[in-house]
Structure formats: C-alpha cells, structure tokens
Amino acid sequence: MDVVAIMEALAGQGVTVLFKADAERMAEGRRCWTFVASGAPLRDDVLVRTDAASVEQCLEVCLPRLRELGFSFPE
C-alpha cells in the first residue's frame, strides 16, 4: 500500500491528512501512530482519526470510513 499516494489523492480532494509517530507513547509501549483526516470536504466537520500500533492499523480503521464518506484513493 502506497501511503504517499493515498495521502496525495486525499489532499487532491481537499482533505488534510496527518500521520504522526509519538515518541513518548512508543517509549511507553502504547499505540504510537496517529492518523487524522480533516478539512472542508468532510461533511459536518467530521474528523476521521485513530491511534494504533502501526501505520497499517491506522489505515485499516480510517480508509474504509473515508470511502464511506465518498473519497477515493489507490488500493
């Protein structure tokens, strides 16, 4: 899965996308990755967000939600 291509496709549709790796949570053994998608195209100020143990887990949670909201991006 090409994370950059997904982020670029979403940004091209007006969605702001953020991936974050949190050093403090990683040191504590907690879910250190955060994915956030926000912006004007998301209806009613919807925020698509999750914290997970990996980038892949973040995408497994958030990409289906973004598809439900009508956004498209590479598989």
Can you give me a brief rundown of this structure?
Helices cover 39% and strands 23% of the residues. By secondary structure, the chain is an alpha+beta fold. The longest helix is centred in the last third of the chain and has 14 residues.
Explained architecture:
The chain is α+β, with helices and mostly antiparallel strands and 75 residues long. It is 39% helix and 23% strand. The chain has helices at residues 3-12, 23-27, 55-68; strands at 16-21, 33-38, 48-52.
Strand segment tally: 3
Average per-residue pLDDT, rounded, comes to 93
What gap, in angstroms, lies between the N and C termini? 7 Å
Percent strand equals 15-25%
Radius of gyration: 12 Å
Q: What is the 3D shape?
A: globular
Query: What topology, given as strand order, has the largest sheet?
Result: 1-2-3
> What is the makeup of the main sheet?
3 strands, antiparallel
Q: What is the structural class?
A: alpha+beta
The percent of residues in helical segments reads 25-40%
Number of helices: 3
The unreliable regions are none
Helices and strands, in order, run as HEHEEH
